[in-house]
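User: Batch of two.

Assistant: Item 1 of 2:
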Amino acid sequence: MEFVDNLPPMDLMRSEKMTFVQLIIPVESAHRAISYLGELGLLQFRDLNADKSPFQRTFVNQVKRCGEMSRKLRFFKDQISKAGLGSSAQPVSQPDIELEELEIQLAEHENELIEMNSNSEKLRQSYNELLEFKMVLQKASGFLVSSKSHAVGEERELDENVYSNDDYVETASLLEQEMRPGPSNQSGLRFISGIICKSKVLRFERILFRATRGNMLFNQAPADENIMDPVSSEMVEKTVFVVFFSGEQAKTKILKICEAFGANCYPVPEDITKQRQITREVSSHLSELEATLDAGIHHRNKALTSFGFHLTKWMIMVRREKAVYDTLNMLNFDVTKKCLVGEGWCPIFAKAQIQEVLQRATFDSNSQVGIIFHVMDAVESPPTYFRTNHFTNPFQEIVDAYGIARYQEANPAVYTVITFPFLFAVMFGDWGHGICLLLGALVLIARESKLSSQKLGSFMEMLFGGRYILLLMAIFSIYCGLIYNEFFSIPYHIFGGSAYKCRDTTCSDSHTAGLVKYRDPYPFGVDPSWRGSRSELPFLNSLKMKMSILLGVAQMNLGIILSYFNARFFHSSLDIRYQFVPQMIFLNGLFGYLSLLIVIKWCTGSQADLYHVMIYMFLSPTDDLGENQLFWGQRPLQIMLLLLAIIAVPWMLFPKPFILKKLHSERFQGRTYGILGTSEMDLDVEPDSARQHHEEFNFSEVFVHQMIHSIEFVLGAVSNTASYLRLWALSLAHSELSTVFYEKVLLLAWGYDNIVIRLVGLTVFAFATAFILLMMESLSAFLHALRLHWVEFQNKFYHGDGYKFRPFSFASLADDED
């Protein structure tokens, strides 16, 4: 055991040692000190004002000002993106600007931009009205007839088309009156012309018809140009309309309906000369307005471009200032109101760096009083912090998704780096598919610097984040594919010739009577001759099923061994004696023994039925094994292992709660002071140690918890071992699916002497391989490997009830501006 204790600490095995510190910062250097700590990013502050609302805190006004500046900067960013200019990714060099000066500048720029937008909107509104008026004049003139000769022609056409329809009697009479100038004026026939959105025309016409009870004539024509909406800057399709009606009441109704539908009405004279004169005037105004609009847009874009050069730098600056004041709000004033007091967690290795940063802040702020930094003892458990890199971070994220490690407990991510991609590959094993995954992973890694600076979609971001997981999964898939001897389900003689041959030269009975072994076994992996033989499926099923059990028992044993190292690290001898030992005995007495039988059967070539051996080990342990005996002394060994497994259950259940009760009663009576907490000597050795919370001991609660834990382990030993059979099931499914696509799609298409059929078959095979085998099957294998780690492996030792170390850091500030 001394050898184990003297081993150097493994990176990532335990979280970084943390210490609880207190800062006493003079007010004049507080802002600079917090800014420097944000750049360092190794101190997590504790909120000392958690009982106060955000509006009751000291620096609430500064936070509000920063929030207002953020709003203005977001407004500028939106305006730049609407104008299609884009902010500069590389901010130009500019002398540092103070926050107060920036606030004044932003207010001026915002007022200037709002005024420009308002003027531009008014001009655009006027331009739109004139453009609509021009289009109404052009289109409405076609509906209005002033010459008598034209009226006669229209009347003849009316006689042929409209009068023949009995349903349009009133409409026809209105049109007839409109085409006869004399009588129409006397009868009071009028018209309203205007323009409306194309999407509203049908409803508009229907409402008009109902409101006037059919006593109107509605003419429409599509506008020649789309109109820009000044608010949304989108182009809108419009339709010109002319409504003929009679009577003042009808006019009031029609105008109200036009107003309700957002239709713009324009007066159109019946006289063609007046129409032409007005059209010329409108066109002249339009050209003037267009020139004014272009000049305004150019001026606005120039102003926005000048903002864009500094926008990124300003946004970073304001975001940092807001984060600094938010952090200052977590600090308290001391009694004299001249110093701010802060508390927080930092890694022990970072103490020297933090002290150096604080000294620099004192010097730069010209403070007469230095910042006091000292270590304190804390009641609560420290946060968990692992130093990861690009390679180890995605594996740590997989573990953290289940639960953050308790402070200093064994970290499953150390083993997940290898076991996760390996178990994935056991289910996905095909070196052809593995090469495809490898190429994808290498592309992501090769373009790492470029992709890391881009904004990716959710799927691509997830794929890019797990690029190293994908790389290892691909490498292990190639390895397992070589073991299974499958390249897109096709076996190859890579490592030499087969160990089997046909019984005769014709090979007529190779699929019925089978092959004959004539030399040493195939050197690496599955012999290619198993492919297509009559015993292929039973052989591969037996191989993969037994292999799954061996891998599962090995990984579960690793989990229990890690629980031993946890108990040893936390000096919990109770957990070693009454959890680790009986758990090892129970698991290996049953399933460790099954694994031993599998290995012996493989080595000896025995025909023993392992199902029979394991079932009758429980039902009839004293019966003679007969032909199922694999080695001498098997029956007494089985009886001994069964008894040990039975003894292990109460061993897990009863001693620990009663011993805890005894220890508590002794502590209560004052006979055992050594257990009560850490002494001063301990604090000198481990300044990060926390005082233990001794709550009232509840024996029934402890006993029920231990009973649940014991029952869960006993039942879990069976169910978890069976759960590892998913390795066999998914490997078989992947292999069979791959075979079906190869034989029933590619080979079937290749059997035709037609290039089109062959190309179709090849395309279907390629799509099936890419989308079903490479995407869906890889996702399925990934999720099953994830479950095996979270449930079957981690529940043996991993509590996962800690909380993450979240230091105040400018680097971790979110990029979004919400």
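Item 2 of 2:
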Amino acid sequence: MDGRVSFDADPVIDFESPADEDGVHDSFSQLIQEQCHDLHDVIEMTPLDLEEDSRGQITPQPILARNRPLRQEVTSDSSLTDLCVSDDVECLEADSDAPQQTDHLIGERWSSDTLKVLSSMPSRTIGRSRGAIISQYCNRTMQLRRRRQSRPSIQHFPRSARPSIRGYGVETDAAGFEEEENKRDRLVNNLQNLSDSDRVRMLRAMPLSLSEKKELRMLVLNKAEHSVSQNQIPCCSQLKYYIIIALRHGWYGWLSFLSSLQLWQTALKCVGGRFGTGVLSYFIFLRTLLFFNVFLFLVTGLLLVVPQAITHPDQDQNITVRSSWGLEVLTGAGYFSHSLLYYGYYNNQTLQTGHSCSASGNGTSCSSGLSYNMPLVYFFTIGAAFFITCIILVYSMSKSFGQSFRIDKSKGLLAIKVFSSWDFKVIKKSSVRLQRANIGTQLKELVAEVNRQEQKFPVLQRLFRLFIHMLAWIMCLGSTLACVLAVYYFSEHMHGDLRNRTQAASSDPLLKEASLLAVPVVVSSINLLLPGFFNVVAWMEKYDSPSMLNYISISRNLLLKVSVLGVLCYHWLGRVATDPQSLGLECWESFVGQELYRFLLMDFIFMLLDTFFGEFLWRVFSQKALKRKRKPVFDIARNVLELIYGQTLAWLGVLFSPLLPAVQIIKLLFLFYMKKVSLKMNCQASGKPWRACQMTTIFITLLCFPAFLGATVCVTYTMWSITPSAGCGPFRGLKNMFQAGKRWVHRLAAVNPDLHWLASAHSYLVENPLFLFLCAGIFLIMIYFHSQVVDGQRKIIELLQEQIENEGEDKKFLITRLQHIHERKRRVTPRPVKGASEACSYS
């Protein structure tokens, strides 16, 4: 029966008769003899071939044994062909189940001409002739020596050779061997005359094995040492050589020291190796927020707090306030009300570093030292801090977009992780165990992503799932709206209660101070309990993908946090700031700063309670009472949104409380170690491994747009539109905070008429909102263009990958077409085959 080749989507391959099989084997033997002509050392079988053959697949690749005759045995059963290699008893079985294979090129019995073409393909012949490779790179090194002034790059080298998984044959011909040795010597000489960087690049580009590259490198070094020993190096050259080596070792040691100073590096590796990249992204995000707050604290501390601390405050600020011990730490009132913590402590004077007067004949002349305009510095410090933070956030977000939204297929990443992820410089046992656990967890995530398939449901079940999702969203949105309304009406009630207590002179000051904690406690309780309700609703929806479940939870928690913060900002800026006299407030900015301090502190306390009751006690209850071995899974969405909520409070409060970033730093430090300990004791890794490739990008994006953008709008509105307090703060007596810069510009123009253009520039650039909107538009356009560039790169990569796949299909088509043409020629003019008589007698 002749083999028919079909070009349909599912080709049906018929096997040839035993006589034709005998002819194919003889052609195969003839091809082997042609390939190994004048060779005694030949290609060895790789483990990959043994594995494929053991599964019943025959790879059309010449199979040779070193210095052993090939023996073919055709059994009486046409479904089994044994190719046995003598002395080693290595048998390759081709099973008759080949038609069930998905790839019609595997398991096909090719003709000798087709096998010859296959064996001559670049992917199968490259890497066999080591002499050709050495000759080629000998010429390259010679060309490189001639143009030493222009250092070449590896990407400029033509890829005429690639490493093959096949072994390299060794030339046994005496002339060929001598010629190869000459080329090898010339290559060593040329490599010796190159610089170190060029030599490293050239050795890396050679398609040779690591052992052969190491051998070439040792030959170059030994020859260099021999030449150095023959030619005495001058003392100055030796001293220069030793100085360069010492500086290089010192630089490498400094870089290693700097890398070891990374904050929480070992702890993050432990978390990532045990719980995966999803939980690791939470701790990385926490560290990022810590760096942002350290930057804010350094800016405000050096430019605002320290200059105000070294000067004496006004006399009316030295007030003794009675307060209950301990309660003022929770409320931020009492002693802290008249301290560097809040806006009201800072004065509106120009601080002088020196002031001296001297008497002369014309009278007394006074000279002042360096002046420090506190209102101007306060205004520009807050503005510069927000501007630099915006630049850092936009840069981090664009960089994270470029790294996480690449076209990285899981199979390719899995291969990279398997073959090239181990760091062989790690020799410490604890580091080895840590790296092994980290790589193992990442492999689990990649394998789970490769094996995860989108489930297809019937129409009725799909409609039912859609109904469940809609019902869940209605429940979540309804509960969020109810909580927002509760916060609004409760804040209005407490505002009226505080006004009544202020008007009533006989009210208890302790009870009045404790009542300030009511709104923060209610808001923190909602932020603690409602995400648990969201988790129950998500459990009813039964999402198959853990990443999708986290994204849905993040969106619902984000909606809750943004809504609550919007109501609170309206309460502070729309109620308290517009009518501070009704509450008896002399400095409403300090009161808002105290409110933000209380909210930040209550948020931290409720996070402690959630860690203890929600994780520790629940783990003990489930293991002791319910007799379950499983521990709760770390809730990434809720914990991340808690971090964003706290950071938004810190950004809102930096104008009213310059030291509030210090409170946030202390909170984040405690939170990191507390969450790390609780994670190891009370939580376990997710039962469904998943790779959080875009989680950090989403966290940075949420931190930028809803959180930082909202805080910037509120702070800008406060500085632009709301009238500051008349009795406190650096902006007392001004219509708005922007007038501090305007007064300074006009003062400079009055002193020096050449600077009159500063007033116009300030009015058009700072006071005019069009310029601010223009800057915001430029930032948005930059983000848009960067996202479009990343999207275009993704599309180009997808097209290139599709082109590679199409080229592979084209090769399969050409090989199949070649086999079809050969079959037609053989049917027209059959060629006599060696051993045909035995085949006929067999049939």
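Residues 411 and 690 are 14 Å apart (CA to CA).
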